Amino acid sequence: xxxxxxxxxxxxxxxxASDAPSDADLATYGLDQPQHQLVFTAADGKQTRLLVGKxxxxxxxxxxxxxxxxxxxxxxxxxxxxxxxxxxxxxxxxSFDPGSATVIDxxxxxxGHYTLRSTDGKWSxxxxxxxxxxxxxxxxxxxxxxxxxxxxxxDTTDDLTAYGLAxxxxxxxxxxxxxxxxxxxxxxxxxxxxxxxxxxxxxxNEPTVYELRDFQFKQLDxxxxxxxxxxxxxxxxxxxxxxxxxxx
Length: 248
Known about the structure:
248 residues, 2 domains, five-stranded antiparallel beta sheet, 19% helix
């Protein structure tokens, strides 16, 4: 919303298309049937209409709905002026301070399960004495702590199967101090347009289903081995020389 309001506030004409456009001119500018119409209502009830027309190599045609003059502004403005409701909605799935998490419980659709636990700020894999790669763990927690959907797929649904979430690929529960629940999310996938895969996510106890980008799903879909630090070479072990680039 701030970006949209800032764009409108900072609109400056790069050219003037016409001070008295005819109906034919407005059709040429795409303003006879605007691509978008933004209506701003002030505290006193006064309204201002901004009509958004065609985008050309010269720029974007716009017009105050109550004045005849037609302006051309930079094409950059179309990015924000063309945003729809889905673009402007808050699509936060899960948000928390990464430092507040102490337990992360992960269950996979194939039955696999593991728990990451933090003791005095150091993460470990429950039931394993293997050292963990702290950077990998921190990256995983960071992705969880600011998890947002790409778009809203459904505001509510009684059929999670349609979104691949009845038996999700992964269920992740995050807890804080004294095992206080921070949140549980379930991520899955479906193929509404085969063979393309669409990744989905939902927070438990909330109705909205969101789309995830593929890289976001990969950030969540981790196995225990992904967190284990690589073994250190024994003392005196030879270091493999870097591979030479093949000659063309």
